[in-house]
Amino acid sequence: MIYSMTGYASVEHEVSNGVLVLELRSVNHRYLELQLKLDDHVRMFEPQVRELISTHLKRGKVECRLSLAHRATEQRQVQLDDNVLQQLAQMTVSVQRHFPESRPLSVSDILRWPGVVLGESTDQETLGKAIQEAVLKAVQQMTAARAREGAKLKDIILERLVDMETQVAKVRPLLPTQMQTYQARLTAKLREALGVADEERVRQELTIFAQRIDVDEELSRLGAHITEVKHLLNAGSPAGKQLDFLMQELNREANTLASKSVSTEVSQAAMALKLLIEQMREQVQNIE
Question: At CB < 8 A and 24+ separation, what contacts does 175-179 make?
């Protein structure tokens, strides 16, 4: 299956004292780049979240937002831990003795200090399991979304490949006609200049011309690359990097075909091929 690198997922997971809110956003990127934005209540689980996402996603610029929203409707008897407060007070005095110009702790700083407020913290093991479930669910949602978009990208590319095969098929029959037209034109010029057609001279010029316009190798390589692109699309992800390389090779052959063209028809076919390749390349940039 082909996966896009673009996706979004959002999960809310109930815990004992609130709701875990998780958002995943992903866009195309050369490698896997994770940006984690976790609030203070869940920041300690950052390594776990990073490992879970990295295990399931291989490419893309992924942004993960995770927060613990406490229930506003709950009425609790909030208590402060006097021992922790005393320790904070002693640490504050010690710090200001060494750094007199340091800013003292504000009330909000103190209340956010781990362990100061009693009865507010969720059991860490339970919270860790809840976060794991939320991340896995979000990754599953995102993977499904990326698969749906990947299927659409695959269909678009396959359509362009069919159009490319049509253009390649148009070029092959043109080559014998070009040789006949050039031979007739060359013979007429020699007769006009010399009064007689020099058969040896005609053969030499035709040989040089045939070598110059011979695009059989380019057409064969175009066919081979098209076949390989189809194989990768059917094999599934990860295929983005290989497909991107093949787009470069297809474009190289199309450029050579254009440079060897001696007719309007071949030039038009080469330009059509380059346009189709560019359209595919834009889609390939989003494939994992």
Answer: 175/213, 175/214, 175/215, 175/216, 178/213, 178/262, 178/263, 178/266, 179/206, 179/209, 179/210, 179/213
Instruction: Give the pLDDT band (50/70/90) at residue 75.
Output: very low
Cβ neighbourhood burial of 130 (10 Å; 0-12, 13-18, 19+): buried
Long-range interactions of 76-83: CB distance < 8 A, separation 24+: 76/119, 76/120, 77/119, 78/117, 78/118, 78/119, 78/120, 79/117, 79/118, 79/119, 80/116, 80/117, 80/118, 81/115, 81/116, 81/117, 81/118
Specify the DSSP class assigned to residue 40. T
Please enumerate in sequence order all residues whose Cβ is within 8 A of that of 129, keeping only pairs 6 or more positions apart, or say none. none
Output the pTM of the full model: 0.70
In 3D, which of 166, 171, 173 has the Cα closest to residue 267?
Answer: 171
Residue 36 pairs in a beta bridge with 64
Task: Give the pLDDT confidence of 238-280 residue by residue, as tens digits.
Answer: 899 999 999 999 999 999 888 877 778 888 999 999 999 999 9
Query: CA-CA distance, 243 to 221, in Å (whole number)?
Result: 15
pLDDT average, residue stretch 157-170: 94
Number of helices and strands (H, E) in the chain? 9, 6
